[in-house]
Design a protein that fits this description.
With 144 residues, the chain is mainly beta. Helix content is 8%, strand content 46%. β10 and β11 form a beta hairpin.
Length: 144
């Protein structure tokens, strides 16, 4: 099932709420968020801005190319009873991926603790170990 949390992504050009897959296999040196191109377009980040870089990323099945935006965005988790403080993140954009993915570093900054990935349960690190939050349903951002 995986763990998906509802996030609010804010750029200088817009704001979107969407579920995001917590992907601990998306290992980064800084907080990164992978955005499908159609969502990045809603946020004014796609087509790529001047200063964007095309980078190789190693993924299951081989190598893919991702656009690394020169702009940062703010991400926070929004659930029924609380919101996290916004975290600055680097958006990386894929025209092949349809789901938002948050990196291991961004997961850490958002203080998310995965409790059971198969059941899709999670909690914030400052919550009791008995607290179990349920995963969001996936949202797929398909380019038209």
């Amino acid at each position: 099932m995986g763990v998906r949390v509802k996030i609010r992504v804010k750029s200088n050009h817009g704001e979107v709420e969407t579920p995001a897959l917590v992907n601990t296999g998306f290992e980064t040196d800084e907080p990164e968020i992978l955005l499908p191109a159609s969502l990045a377009e809603n946020l004014g980040l796609y087509p790529p801005a001047e200063g964007s870089k095309l980078e190789e990323y190693s993924v299951v099945g081989g190598i893919t190319f991702i656009v690394r935006s020169p702009r940062t965005i703010h991400v926070k988790v929004v659930v029924e009873d609380r919101e996290t403080e916004p975290v600055e993140a680097v958006p990386v954009i894929s025209d092949k991926e349809s789901e938002v993915l948050i990196s291991d570093r961004l997961t850490s900054k958002l203080k998310i603790s995965i409790e059971d990935p198969a059941e899709g349960t999670w909690r914030f690190r400052d919550e009791p170990l008995t607290k179990k939050r349920s995963s969001e349903k996936p949202k797929y951002w398909i380019s038209s």
